[in-house]
Design goal:
alpha/beta, 15% strand, 39% helix, six-stranded parallel β-sheet, 11 helices, Rossmann fold
């Protein structure tokens, strides 16, 4: 098939979405399809830019660009599911969360209220008729149902370079990989570290808008001797940090999917997540292959202290995590088959 995958381009803002879209394109090509990736420029504000992005997407007809027939269009992100094509499949990574689960009416001005109405109508109009309609995780599917009344099929996929993750002899540190952003809640980990009884080191990797604030917080809490901020690390370095960690901490709030959870499981490492963590809760089971804790500094501090005192139990939970990953059968072949199946 000749396929067009559509997503967004956010210059110099890179994360899991990039792994997702490029992983899909690579998998489709490996299965014999002709594929192009079309990324539309996207900014998160102001509201006028978002309105313009919706209009531009809805005006695009990519049935026969330059006279070349496109067999199927697969859209991954808002607002690209507004692009016109007679055989249009959606695989929703997430919606524009600022007007859905992250919307706070107490802080909303008239502009945001109008934007919320416009985006909701856009999604209902352009996602509603799309069949089949897939979601990145159960959490994303729940949001689609809750806010738009739309059902969807959950379609999981493996993280990038899944076959390269490995387990090595654990060293005495907790690993916290992620972009340094508010919703990832690295600040909560620092608050927990300040309450710990043990001196267990905590290693952060990744960069983002909260890096300086987190550095100041760690210094203020007197944690500089126990906390390391590595910034951006290579994929090889990241895999080694996973491999040698005692356990992995991923306290993000209401995550869409969460590659970190799967990367840790591939590394035979148990994961500490929070009870409001969203997507990671679809894989982590409390006291089986990781720990699900309330999103409080005290609860995390107690778990971190427990891990320092129970390294053997942490390793056993990590082995279970790897086995659970294997039993989940996450693979690109299944993804490709479902996204390219003949329309019912």
């Amino acid at each position: 098939m000749r396929l067009l995958v559509t997503a967004n381009l956010t210059p110099f803002l890179h994360g899991g979405a990039d792994y997702h879209m490029h992983g899909l394109v690579r998998a489709l090509r490996e299965h014999g399809h002709q594929v192009e990736l079309l990324q539309l420029p996207f900014t998160f504000g102001p509201a006028s830019d978002l309105m313009q992005s919706m209009r531009r997407a809805a005006e695009l007809d990519l049935t026969r660009p330059n006279g070349i027939e496109i067999d199927r269009l697969i859209s991954l992100q808002f607002p690209t599911w507004g692009i016109r094509h007679p055989d249009h499949v959606t695989w929703v990574m997430h919606q524009h969360r600022a007007v859905y689960d992250l919307f706070n009416p107490e802080n909303a001005d008239d502009t945001l209220l109008q934007l919320k109405t416009a985006i909701t109508e856009f999604d209902n109009t352009h996602l509603g008729p799309k069949r089949p309609r897939f979601a990145n995780s159960r959490r994303v599917a729940q949001r689609l149902q809750q806010y738009n009344g739309l059902d969807s099929t959950v379609l999981y996929h493996p993280p990038a370079d899944a076959e390269r993750f490995y387990c090595a002899e654990p060293e005495r540190y907790l690993y916290v990989p992620s972009r340094l952003e508010t919703l990832k809640r690295q600040s909560l980990v620092l608050e927990a570290a300040a309450l710990m009884r043990s001196s267990l080191p905590i290693v952060f990797s990744g960069d983002g808008g909260q890096r300086e604030a987190l550095r100041v917080q760690a210094e203020t809490l007197g944690l500089n001797d126990r906390v390391r901020f590595l910034g951006h690390v290579s994929e090889t370095e990241k895999r080694a940090l996973y491999a040698h960690s005692l356990a992995v901490v991923f306290p993000a709030q209401d995550e869409d999917y969460g590659y970190i959870t799967l990367e840790a499981m591939l590394s035979s490492k148990a994961v500490v997540v929070c009870s409001d963590g969203g997507g990671p809760l679809e894989f982590i089971h409390h006291q089986v292959n990781g720990w699900v804790e309330p999103p409080t500094a005290q609860a995390l501090a107690e778990r971190f202290d427990w891990l320092d005192a129970n390294a053997a139990a942490a390793a056993a939970a990590g082995r279970t995590a790897r086995a659970d990953y294997e039993s989940a059968s996450l693979n690109w072949q299944s993804v490709v088959e479902q996204l390219t199946a003949s329309a019912a």
